[in-house]
């Protein structure tokens, strides 16, 4: 979505958080002809996410559960119009599929509500030590990358003894910053708290080739430098004009009648509702691909350097316009207890009347995150694709949302993505060969009013 960049950095893939309370469920009919007792009614466990779902005729409740206890995540609503399909496998199992995520979710029936979630056991308190217990246990139960990010989580459980009302968020911030994970965060609107684990390391990467007045120290600095960067691209490479969707989330133009240029700013924000997101996107893609076809060009730059993610299905639908064969691209799995769920293999095949399969340069940067990184997985192994720029951010998992008893929201990485060769790019990111490394932001580019990434892309395509 078109948010200010730093705000988006703080909530990479945050577009998913909005749906996490409903992402595993579909609408069920309230038709008067339905049986008195809906077969989906009852209690359902989503074990790898730490959710218990209570579905009733009147209202639905989602509980957040961990070894610390149970908290109501969402209540008093009906799971409807969520873009989700819920299928009955048998009396004790459901499978949920969402139009926005690539995952299938398994729901297992519980005979009774978990004892931790009984009304008298629900935790709703501002006690700082209890809130620390929940925080530590939620990560301990569901976070997927302690070893990869070299954090011994067990070493911090005893910080509970130091927690007070005044220092709770200071201590929690110290812990999440150790993970350097842009999909890890804490927000508490009441306390005006908004902490993201990956912001510092991201700013360090963005500032690596900047100095003086160009150094990014605030959101205003970031906005200004992005505007300046965009102005250089539009004026010096696109001739001052471009085609776009209604929200300018994707733009395209032909450079010097020789090379098609497509900039995908986000993997969400094309539709007006969750239900027409993909329909609207594909109408835009049909027009864009037809324009590229009619231009007759055989070279293409795909620029996702500004793209901080959104919906994985958006990434899939865009990528499908640049392949003409079905193939398995990557797999994903979620943490489940001391192990993981079964691998879900994800394939990509062609869509639309025309697929561009000539030479492509894919431009990436440290801002390229989440669903935009899924896009790099779709394309990186195609023989006609060359990556130019910098390694992507290195945060692939959907954001898993939980809540603390005091109402604060917690986001964490719960899933591991592996490419077709079994390689995991979490924390590393997908990037170019040494010869094709070009900084996204640099003093040289701004001083000389140019874009080194686009220049390198043109060079590669003209070889």
What does this entry look like structurally?
This protein has 463 residues and is an alpha+beta fold. The protein has helices at residues 5-10, 128-142, 168-179, 199-206, 219-236, 277-295, 312-319, 371-379, 443-447, 452-461; strands spanning 42-46, 51-55, 60-66, 69-77, 84-90, 93-98, 104-110, 185-188, 193-196, 243-244, 250-255, 259-264, 299-303, 327-336, 339-340, 344-348, 359-364, 385-389, 399-403, 409-413, 415-419. Strand 12 (259-264), helix 6 (277-295) and strand 13 (299-303) form a beta-alpha-beta unit. Helix 6 packs parallel to helix 7 (312-319). The longest helix has 19 residues, at 277-295. The chain starts with a helix and ends with a helix. The model is unreliable at 1-36 (pLDDT under 50).
């Amino acid at each position: 979505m078109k948010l200010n960049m730093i705000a988006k950095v703080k909530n990479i893939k945050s577009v998913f958080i909005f749906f996490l309370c409903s992402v595993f469920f579909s609408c069920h009919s309230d038709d008067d002809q339905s049986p008195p007792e809906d077969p989906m009614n009852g209690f359902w466990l989503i074990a790898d996410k730490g959710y218990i779902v209570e579905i009733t005729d009147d209202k639905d409740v989602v509980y957040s559960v961990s070894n610390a206890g149970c908290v109501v995540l969402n209540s008093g609503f009906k799971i409807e119009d969520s873009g989700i399909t819920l299928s009955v496998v048998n009396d004790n199992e459901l499978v949920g599929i969402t139009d926005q995520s690539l995952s299938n979710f398994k729901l297992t029936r519980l005979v009774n509500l978990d004892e931790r979630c009984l009304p008298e056991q629900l935790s709703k308190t501002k006690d700082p030590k209890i809130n620390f217990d929940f925080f530590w246990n939620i990560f301990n139960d569901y976070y997927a990358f302690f070893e990869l990010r070299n954090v011994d989580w067990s070493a911090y459980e005893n910080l509970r003894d130091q927690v007070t009302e005044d220092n709770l968020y200071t201590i929690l911030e110290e812990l999440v910053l150790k993970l350097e994970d842009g999909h890890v965060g804490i927000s508490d609107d009441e306390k005006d708290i908004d902490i993201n684990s990956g912001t510092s390391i991201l700013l360090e990467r963005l500032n690596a080739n900047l100095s003086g007045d160009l150094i990014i120290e605030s959101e205003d600095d970031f906005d200004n430098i992005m505007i300046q960067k965009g102005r250089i691209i539009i004026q010096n490479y696109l001739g001052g004009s471009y085609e776009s969707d209604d929200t300018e989330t994707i733009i395209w133009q032909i450079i010097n009648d020789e090379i098609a240029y497509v900039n995908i700013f986000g993997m969400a924000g094309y539709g007006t509702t969750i239900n027409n997101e993909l329909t609207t996107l594909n109408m835009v893609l049909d027009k864009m691909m037809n324009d590229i076809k009619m231009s007759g060009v055989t070279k293409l730059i795909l620029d996702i350097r500004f793209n901080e993610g959104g919906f994985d299905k958006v990434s899939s639908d865009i990528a499908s316009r640049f392949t003409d064969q079905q193939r398995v691209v990557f797999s994903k799995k979620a943490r489940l207890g001391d192990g993981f769920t079964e691998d879900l293999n994800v394939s990509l095949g062609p869509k639309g009347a025309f697929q561009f399969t000539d030479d492509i340069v894919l431009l990436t940067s440290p801002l390229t995150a989440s669903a935009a990184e899924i896009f790099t997985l779709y394309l990186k192994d195609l023989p006609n694709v060359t990556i130019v720029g910098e390694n992507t951010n290195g945060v692939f998992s959907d954001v898993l949302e939980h809540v603390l008893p005091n109402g604060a929201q917690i986001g964490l990485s719960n899933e591991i993505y592996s490419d077709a060769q079994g390689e995991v790019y979490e924390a590393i990111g997908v990037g170019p060969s040494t010869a094709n490394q070009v900084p996204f932001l640099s003093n040289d580019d701004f001083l000389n009013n140019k874009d080194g990434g686009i220049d390198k892309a043109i060079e590669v395509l003209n070889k």
